[in-house]
Design brief:
Helices cover 47% and strands 12% of the residues. The protein is an alpha/beta fold and 236 residues long. It has 2 domains: 53 residues; 174 residues, 3-Layer(aba) Sandwich (Rossmann fold), CATH 3.40.50. β3, α2 and β4 form a beta-alpha-beta unit. α1 packs parallel to α2 and α2 runs parallel beside α3. It is globular and about 55 Å long. Bound molecules: NADP nicotinamide-adenine-dinucleotide phosphate. The site of NADP nicotinamide-adenine-dinucleotide phosphate has 21 residues, from loops.
Length: 236
Amino acid sequence: MLVCNLSRREPCADLGENSARPVRHFPCDLARPERIAAAAGEVLAALAAEAPAGRVLLVNNGGVGGFGSFPAPSAGRQLEIVDVNVRAVVDLTARLLPCLRRRGGAIINVASVVAYLPTPFCATYGASKAFLLNWSHALGEELRGSGVRVLALSPGTTRTGFFEGTGATRPEAIAVQGMAPDDVVAGALRALAAGRASFVPGIGNRLAAAAAAWLPRSAAARLARGAMERRVPPPS
Ligand SMILES: NC(=O)c1ccc[n+]([C@@H]2O[C@H](COP(=O)([O-])OP(=O)(O)OC[C@H]3O[C@@H](n4cnc5c(N)ncnc54)[C@H](OP(=O)(O)O)[C@@H]3O)[C@@H](O)[C@H]2O)c1
C-alpha cells in the first residue's frame, strides 16, 4: 500500500497498524489550479512506479471554513472556500478518475452535516458542502457498475483544528464538543465497505440531517441561524 498526501504542510501521519507503509507527501496548495495539475501528475507517476497494481482510494478531505456575516471573515476567504472545497475536488477527481476506473477503487468526499441545510453565517462553507453531497451522489450513480464507488462523508463537529482561523468565536471550545476523528474515520470505512453512498457519523448528527431534509428550506435556514449565530462575533 502507498499513501499519497496532498496538502501544504507535511502531515504528522499516525497510520496505526499501517505505520510500516510508505507515506509520500506532495506539497500542494489546493487553491492553486496549476499546483493541482502538477501534483496529480506526480501522484499518478508515484502510483505507477511504486504501487502499480491494486485498487485506489481517493479521499478528498482538504477543506476550509469561514464564519461571520457575509463576506466576513473576508471576501478572499469566501473565494478560498470555493476553490479548495469545490474546485480542487472536481479538478483532482477528474485527473485521477481514469486511474481509478482502470484499477477499481473508491472516492470519499468529505462534506459536512451542514450540507443538509442552508447555513447563515457560514453560507459559502455550507453551500460548498451541499455541492459535495449532491455531486457525490450523482457521481456515484454515474459510476455504478464501473468498479469505482463514491461515499459522501458528512461529519458534524469533530475534534480537529478546523475552526481556528475561520472567524468563529472560541474555536477551541467548539471543537472540544465534537466527535473523535478516529471514530469518524472508522465509521466512514465501515460505510464504504457496506457499499453506502452517504454517511453521517453520530446519532445526533444523523437526526439533525434527517430533520433538515424534512423541513422547508426557509425553516431550516431559520433554525440553523440560531445555532450558527452563537459561533460568530457580534456585528460591529
Ligand atoms: N472539524 C470539523 O468539525 C468538521 C466538520 C465537518 C466537516 N469537516 C471537514 O473535514 C475536512 C477535514 O478538516 P479537519 O476537521 O481535519 O480540519 P483541519 O485540521 O483544519 O484540516 C484541514 C485539512 O485541509 C488541508 N487544507 C486546507 N487548505 C488547504 C489548501 N489550500 N491546500 C491544501 N490543503 C489544504 C489542510 O492541510 P494544510 O493546512 O497542510 O494545507 C488540512 O489537512 C474538511 O473538508 C472539513 O470541511 C470538518
